[in-house]
Design goal:
- By secondary structure, the protein is mostly helical.
- It has two domains: 69 residues; 153 residues, Serine Threonine Protein Phosphatase 5, Tetratricopeptide repeat, CATH 1.25.40.
- It has 17 helices and no strands.
């Protein structure tokens, strides 16, 4: 492919040099530079699906390499990539590490605009922790958290991931809700992140309350992000937070920074660019 690229490049340069003699150099280079515009709809390089060769090669790759390939393809919306992660992730348990390239991909996946990709990242993270998706595993994490065994932050995070994947979500909510009011801001931070990644309807009001009342500006911002864009809430769930956010927008006790976070949250949830006029936002909400 490298040789082919040089040939193509050489052809274009030759075209420009010939055109220069006829007074068309500028036009030729404009044609070259605008073949793929940066405006408009996405332009596919090739069909977004895994090749048969890639699928066949998976069985000859290490679990780490499989996870890296499939998560990268999932982030780029390749057909079947997320499904293959679902089929294979149990066999990776204890054999993958969120490190190196996979750590970079994991971070990108948690910010993907497709919640299926975020869910795939969660599945891989649980496999890296070697945590089975069972009630027994959940109870073990709770016991370790309550006894102070190991890293409490890790236990909180794992409980949120298990809850998101359908393992004891109500119990996960109770543990996370309790720790979201912990006196230690570091514990509260990860409990708030956990609520966002649990992604159930029950998490919406606590996140709103934290955004409104927590003493830490950093944690108020994390709660706003969990409501607006990060975590595992679906678009329809995020919309349930809008009435409260509209009230916050009109709240004179909110300082300038909090006010801007409210506007940003509304923009992220709605996809609208209305500004900070409460009346305009209420008209938008009433006209949906």
């Amino acid at each position: 492919m490298a040789g082919r690229g040089l040939t193509i490049g050489g052809t274009l340069v030759g075209l420009a040099m010939v055109s220069y003699g006829t007074g068309l150099a500028q036009t030729a280079w404009q044609q070259v530079l605008t073949f793929i515009a940066l405006e408009g709809k996405p332009v596919a390089a090739s069909p977004a699906r895994l090749s048969e060769h890639e699928i066949q090669e998976l069985d000859h790759m290490t679990p780490q390499a499989q996870a890296e390939l499939l998560l990268e393809r999932g982030i780029n919306h390749y057909e079947g990539a997320v499904q293959l992660i679902d089929q294979r992730v149990d066999s990776w348990r204890g054999s993958v590490k969120i490190a190196g390239q996979l750590n970079t991909l994991f971070t990108s996946a948690l910010n993907a605009n497709d919640l299926r990709v975020r869910a795939a990242a969660i599945e891989i993270d649980l496999a890296a922790y070697n945590v089975p998706k069972t009630s027994e595993s959940f109870s073990s994490q709770v016991q370790a958290l309550e006894s102070g065994e190991g890293d409490g932050i890790t236990h909180l995070w794992i409980l949120s991931l298990l809850g998101n994947r359908g393992v004891e979500p109500e119990r996960a909510f109770q543990v996370l809700f309790q720790n979201a009011h912990h006196p230690d801001t570091h514990v509260r931070y990860w409990a708030i992140e956990g609520l966002a990644y649990l992604g159930t309807d029950a998490t919406i009001q606590p996140l709103l309350d934290i955004f409104r009342n927590d003493s830490s500006a950093n944690l108020r911002e994390r709660a706003a992000c969990g409501l607006a864009q990060s975590g595992m809430l679906q678009q329809s769930q995020r919309m349930k937070a809008v009435p409260a956010l509209l009230t916050y927008l009109e709240d004179p006790t909110f300082d300038g920074t909090n006010h801007q976070w409210v506007v940003q949250a509304l923009q992220d949830i709605s996809g609208q660019s209305i500004g900070d006029d409460p009346g305009a936002w209420r008209r938008w909400y009433g006209s949906r």
